[in-house]
Amino acid sequence: MKKVLTIAGSDSGGCAGIQADLKTFCAHGVFGASAITAITAQNTQGVRAIEDISPDIIKAQIEAVLEDIGSDAVKIGMLSRPQTIEAVSHSLRKHRPGNIVLDPVMVSTSGHDLLSADAKESLIKLMFPLAFLITPNIPEANCLTGLHIKDIADMEEAARKLFESCRCNVLVKGGHSAADAVDVLYDGKTFRHFASRRIDTKNTHGTGCTLSSAIAANLALGYSLEESVKRAKEYITLAIEHSLDIGKGCGPVNHMHAYLKKEMIKHVKQP
């Protein structure tokens, strides 16, 4: 059994964050452990409140998992303030787990800021050098590079700039573009594009968390970076296609779509 640790915030609505990560791990057949960095009161309509977990408890969670269970990959999500970033980086430098996938979460689907202004530099300085892969979306890539991304060429330029500054693999996600969703992967040598059709739905809550978690799960399973991104892209596309119309706002993607399909087939064959 491969093991993946998620370090992220808790979403009371169950659409994103720790909850989305653990569902994604289950769907990929890997064991999920967690270290919660913040508790959010949110639903499909937005984030109502955030309470950060103390740095000492964050470190204790990470070290309790890594010292006993270990990990084959780590997914990192919401790190909302410098103290949180320092605590996470301290524990990761101490234990040196591999396959760290960092999703630089800055703004929620509903538009709520999830990263304080003074945390951005800490994220770049302390966390990016530890990552195997970072997965910014277009608004996050704009914020991190100072660019104004309009097309795939701009996405490549952003990926190049981020690689030069952090020296890790970069996946710039294209879900915020107007055309089909094309993600751009750059490993310092080659650009690879991963395209999918755009699905007409408002129910995309948790998309970024789910994609980065799926990549981490596939890396833990032993797939290459390119294959892990390809498989994760296919997974999130189906999760969006079968997304759930829950709540009054942006509903969640369907993390368990593949499992549920298998169960339905099984029950049809064996009533």
Structure description:
This protein has 271 residues and is of the alpha/beta class. It has one domain: UDP-N-acetylmuramoyl-L-alanine:D-glutamate ligase (3-Layer(aba) Sandwich). It is built from 9 helices and 9 strands. Helix 3 packs parallel to helix 4, helix 5 packs across helix 6 and helix 7 packs across helix 8. It is globular and about 45 Å long. The model has no long low-confidence stretch (mean pLDDT 91).
Strand order of the largest sheet: 3-2-1-4-5-6-7-8-9
Number of domains: 1
What percentage of amino acids are in beta strands? 15-25%
CATH class: Alpha Beta
Main beta-sheet annotation? 9 strands, mixed
CATH topology, by name, is: UDP-N-acetylmuramoyl-L-alanine:D-glutamate ligase
Supply the CATH architecture: 3-Layer(aba) Sandwich
SS field, number of helical segments: 9
Based on secondary structure, the structural category is alpha/beta
Q: Count the strands? A: 9
Q: Could you spell the SSE succession in H and E letters? A: EHEEHEHEHEHHEEEHHH
Q: What would you call the quaternary organization?
A: single chain
Shape: globular
* CATH level-four homologous superfamily name: Ribokinase
Percentage of residues in helical conformation = 40-55%
Could you give the topology of this structure?
Elements: E1 3-11, H1 17-27, E2 31-43, E3 46-52, H2 55-68, E4 73-76, H3 82-95, E5 100-102, H4 119-127, E6 133-134, H5 138-145, H6 152-166, E7 169-172, E8 181-186, E9 191-196, H7 207-220, H8 225-241, H9 257-269
Parallel strand pairs: 1-2, 1-4, 4-5, 5-6, 6-7
Antiparallel strand pairs: 2-3, 7-8, 8-9
Helix pairs in contact: 1-7, 2-3, 3-4, 5-6, 7-8
Keywords: ATP-binding, Kinase, Nucleotide-binding, Thiamine biosynthesis, Transferase
Family: Belongs to the ThiD family.
EC number: 2.7.1.49, 2.7.4.7
